[in-house]
Amino acid sequence: MTDTTDRAVLVAVDDEPGPRAHLRRELGRYERDYDVVIEESAEAATARLDALAEAGRSVAVVLADQWMPGLTGAELLTRCREHHPRAKRGLLVDFGAWGDPPTATAIRHAMAVGDIDYYVLKPWREHDELFHRTISEFFYEWSRQESRETREIVLVAPHDTPRGYELRNLLVRNGLPHVYAASDSAEGVELLRETGHADATVPVVILHDGRVLVDPTNTEMAAAYGVVTTLTEPRCYDVVIVGAGPGGLASAVYSAAEGLDALVVEGEAIGGQAGTSSRIRNYLGFSRGISGAELAQRAYQQAWVFGANFLLMHRVEDLRTEPDHHVLTVDDGTEIAGRTVVLATGVEYARLGVPEVEALVGAGVYYGSSVGEAQACAGSHAFVVGGGNSAGQAALYLAKHAARVSILVRSDSLAASMSVYLRDEIAAATNIDVHYRTEVVGGGGKGRLDHLVLRDVDSGAERTLAAGALFILIGARPRVDWLPDTICRDEAGYLRVGAELEPGTGPGQWPLDRAPFAYETSLPGVFAVGDVRSRSVKRVANAVGEGSVVIQQIGTYLSAP
């Protein structure tokens, strides 16, 4: 092992000589870029991890054999989380033994309570590529969030400012590799000096090719990185998809795969609200879970390879109907024609409505869960308002950084709104607590949130607590204000489709003799999928399913005489 203190470390432990020799041989592949440490006992590994923490070393991956005397691998990895919360943790199990009842129980329990990221089958032959696939994925996931190596984009911005937060959130949600430095940090000061902007009080972005952007708009930021923000060849598309969340991306993939000329228009970030999720564990095919941003980027690339077109950083502001097509107007005045339209606009978080708190959005107060801001919560007490899956995922991710995380909910239980696997992980976390029947009624701070006022819903008693950050995930409302009245909505504003529509010629009624398609709105040729649809199941898998199925209906619509 080369003693290079600025390199990240991989620590592995197995008390059996044979498997340990296999580990040493296979892990040698990574020694060029990482310090690889292999220990012979749980006690030695624990001591090594403590020493690395004391020295301030960054640990990327920890692998531990499950069945060691004195301390099991799961117990060691649980302790590892205290000092190295961002390290990827793998439970080593013998090839062919993962299905044994004791081992299976240990794996499932450790996964359920968040003690490990996944189990790793021990290498049993030379060049064991199955083993290396898992290790490489661990390094990749760790590096996306933790590596401080040179990235394509460097953002230097004043700490705790709404605009700085907005740009960081934009970069994170769009999956753009970047590094952030506060303007008043040593690194930030030096970067500003080198670029000739030493006195800048606004965000400065440094691109990999040396270009410098001073306080760029979202559109300028995206265009500088090669994202399409203008239409170069206006035409009438077969389908225009509004929204690039899971439903919209699925529609893009399936429409392009079927040979339809498709355009996706997105006003913010690829992935929609799902893109803010730090980890989605119950999506089919991703047994270790996947972040919402990563899932969205994969879907975006998949749709792009099939030939789907994208127009990003533009909101659609109007929809009107011509005799044989629909016309959408975006925020810069551009008009887009489409033979059909898929509305996959999703929902946006409901506002908390506390003026003192709203004034600090971007400065300690955040709607949704921002990966970038979560890392700035180290050592603080973070609060999460909300009782759904998104709130649970946010709390668990924050717990890797913050000293303490408190979940605030108005109800007396999480059972009705949060999946069991998330409730189990929250219950097992030592630094997460849940305050039931509690609401935020006040707060404040000088330029940044430093305290919250909480009220007991039943007694009305209030208390003030120091707060490092507040993440708000409290329900949502559909993004439909820009749509014409001819599109029927339910009482909450969600779009009615298919069998929910009433025939007739009045506003919001179905005007044709034929029955509407299952996801067709009251405006023929305009469809709605995902969270924006009335009575939809608010899950990523549901949105993806509807986004794919609607393309079959659109194909039938377009082929009709």
Could you give a quick summary of the protein structure above?
With 561 residues, this protein is α/β, with parallel strands linked by helices. It folds into four domains: 9-146, Rossmann fold, CATH 3.40.50; 153-224, 3-Layer(aba) Sandwich (Glutaredoxin), CATH 3.40.30; 236-348 and 477-559, FAD/NAD(P)-binding domain (3-Layer(bba) Sandwich), CATH 3.50.50; 355-474, FAD/NAD(P)-binding domain, CATH 3.50.50.
What can you see in these coordinates?
- The protein is α/β, with parallel strands linked by helices and 561 residues long.
- The protein is built from 15 helices and 26 strands.
- The chain folds into 4 domains: 138 residues, Rossmann fold (3-Layer(aba) Sandwich), CATH 3.40.50; 72 residues, Glutaredoxin; 196 residues, FAD/NAD(P)-binding domain (3-Layer(bba) Sandwich); 120 residues, FAD/NAD(P)-binding domain.
- Helix content is 30%, strand content 23%.
- The strands form 6 sheets. Strands 10, 11, 12, 13, 14, 15 and 26 form a 7-stranded mixed sheet that branches.
- Helix 9 links the parallel strand 10 and strand 11.
- Helix 9 runs parallel beside helix 15.
- The longest helix has 20 residues.
- The radius of gyration is 25 Å and the shape is globular.
- The chain starts with 8 loop residues before the first strand and ends with a helix.
- The model has no long low-confidence stretch (mean pLDDT 90).
